[in-house]
Task: structure prediction
Amino acid sequence: MAEKTGTGAAESSPAPAAQPDVSSGEAMVSTDPLADLQRERDDYYDRWMRKAAEFDNYRKRIERERRELADQSVVNLLQELLLVVDDFDRALTVDAGEAGEGVTAAYRKGVELIHAKLHDVLRKMGVHPMAALGEDFDPNLHQAVMQESDPHHREGTVTGELRKGYMLHDRLLRPAMVKVAKA
Result:
């Protein structure tokens, strides 16, 4: 009977929980799965916050660099234009009223050179004039300020250019101010 009691006692009491072997040097692993999940969540949240901060810093740096590049482009253009302004200042110091024919022709030649220099600066920057005369009126490229009857042109044709239009590469910089034929 002692046997029966011994076996019965072993069956009725729960088996002892397996304890990690501390003597073997293994790290103790938490047996609480909720605490493990919370630590993992906190770790992911920390990583996510760091990545968000890194991205925010990256975005700010790129925006600052873009702004600096744009500012430098403006500075470069203004420096080129100031050279042309200097030439105009020198041309305006000449008193054309007191001069004779030879000086007036030289004055005109000087202004033509300055004009060509300004167009060279614009061309370097990618600015070029649009052809409008004789073209069909396009409201995306032209600004109609006048209409006139013209039997030599069909309706909607640009017959006069009051102010040139300019393109910056393939983008409209300024529309041409034009006169359009009507029927």
About this structure: The chain has three helices and six strands.
